[in-house]
Amino acid sequence: MDQEKDCEIQSWIKKEDPSRIVRKEGVICRTWRPKDSPSTTYEQIVLPAQYRNKVIRLAHDLPFSGHLGRDKTTQRILRRFYWPTLFKDVRLYCEACKDCQLHANHKRKAPMIPLPIIGEPFKRIAMDIVGPLPRTSRGNRFILVINDYATRYPEAFPLRNITAKKVAEVLIELFARYGIPEEILTDQGSNFTSSLLGELHHLMGVKAIKTSPYHPQTDGLVE
Hints:
Elements: H1 2-5, H2 7-15, E1 21-24, E2 27-32, E3 42-46, H3 49-60, H4 70-78, E4 81-82, H5 86-96, H6 98-105, E5 124-130, E6 142-148, E7 154-159, H7 164-178, E8 183-186, H8 190-193, H9 195-204, E9 207-210
């Protein structure tokens, strides 16, 4: 196991409060409660050195990450992972980011214009299914539409069927490209409320939000 071979992690374990260290199926995790939400407890995977730079890149560089600043990038990572030098590593990474430096060097004073508060990209996504439609040459009859609440960026996935397994496969593909959101908003359809998707949400740490059966307008971004 990479964690057992990581000298930094082993040294940290000796110093850390034992009550904050848990093992989940052999994986060393750390419990953490954010200062702004002390009632919420996260179980962070204690990350070995060889994976840390990739996690920082995913949290900072990818299109849905939006090149957030040091503090927001750190908070995003802390919801899933921890390692002893996390704060220092994120600071150095953000300071060395060429895109961030480029934008920082081209800041100009401009009149203050009120802008709508969008929120953090890919923090909440909404899903809905369109169909059945006329069958395509590839046998697809449905479209799974996924929208990001912050940027309004849409993704559409053609599907032959709308089983929970197929929806789960699409979500895994989406998470691999953009990272894992905090919340997913859907209607009450059986393909969204199945035990399979419930287990996927649990494993990924995603909060599933369901619209009211009589008020699907809650999911208006996709509808």
